[in-house]
């Protein structure tokens, strides 16, 4: 037996579908932006000789749609080993806040990034195995596991520096979920008595083994 809808009920159906679509879209976007866990890695872009700035990108592979974050080291500043976050090339929301998430049309961001990379000199890659990580302090604590808060995992809190025979860094900090820090990349900086290396460690307490990577500046002894 068929049931016929009256006119008012028929008019409500498209509206109900529209509301359902909006709720699903918002829910998916919230879920995407709230996604945690994912590999982070450093891409060294190059050195700008005029302003003495070294640029790099931090990529995040956590399915959130987050744009790579641009940073630089300013070798003319009083703290040349401190990374500076670049915000000017990212879109802004209606409230004026920086929007770090991709909406699928990132032409303006890509154009601004390309304008910066055009002025950069390439760095000289060197063997990362010639560098040593000196652990100055290590604390190990038990923290709740991400997947099951009733379980705990070991969290290793490090203070360390990186050095070789001629260069060394200032003291750095890292939180790892494995007792290991590794020098992954190393580059000599043109027209500078400095080297940049990246240090990789397990940055997420999960069996997926997501790693983080930090950029570290070394100066001559």
UniProtKB/TrEMBL annotation:
Protein name: Uncharacterized protein
Annotated organism of origin: Acinetobacter marinus
